[in-house]
Write a structure and sequence with these properties.
Strand content: 15-25%
Distance between the termini: 30 Å
Structural class: alpha+beta
Helix content: 10-25%
Shape: globular
Number of helices: 5
Strand order of the largest sheet: 5-2-3-6-9
Radius of gyration: 15 Å
Number of strands: 10
């Protein structure tokens, strides 16, 4: 898998810039995003014709409950995040989902386009360990309708992430 781009429109997201700077092999996949769609990860899997277990969603969580100390969890779109398991992996007592506005402010991305890569500030991150089982995984490339495919191990390394079984269902 080499570096590929889906064209001019795909270039320029902070996620893709981070991958290029790191020299990580990746493939950019662009697809039509339906503005009425709210299940962004499932839409990506369907539109790209990829097994949903290989498509991961990026969720911003709030360990402190005050919006000041956020973290990121990356789980397959086929399930939900187990907040208790994710809290344990992050070394905190409990987690809640972050306020959408806080997530946008801290990551620089809009919901449905939040990439774990190229965020404004690298937040503590836990990636579900299933990302290491497939040859490659897909995550948002920083825009709705744009995903990037890369090795799960590369994703974990770039994010300086912890891996744990944090997916439920």
């Amino acid at each position: 898998m080499g570096k590929k781009s889906a064209g001019k429109q795909a270039a320029g997201t902070p996620a893709l810039t981070a991958l290029d700077r790191a020299g990580v092999a990746h493939t950019v996949h662009q697809y039509h995003h339906d503005d009425a769609e709210t299940a962004f990860g499932e839409e990506a899997a369907r539109e790209l014709g990829v097994e949903p277990s290989r498509v991961f969603k990026t969720l911003v969580v709030d360990p402190s409950g005050d919006g000041k100390h956020l973290a990121v969890v990356v789980v397959p779109v086929t399930g939900q995040v187990d907040l208790k398991a994710a809290a344990q992996a992050l070394g905190v007592k409990k987690l809640s989902m972050a306020d959408r506005h806080a997530a946008v402010q801290r990551t620089g991305y809009v919901p449905g386009g939040i990439s774990p890569l190229g965020q404004r500030q690298l937040l503590p991150t836990v990636v579900d360990s299933s990302a290491l089982a497939a040859e490659t995984v897909f995550v948002s490339a920083g825009r709705r309708g744009l995903d990037v495919e890369l090795a799960g191990a590369d994703l974990v390394e770039l994010l300086d992430a912890t891996t744990a079984e944090i997916a439920a269902g």
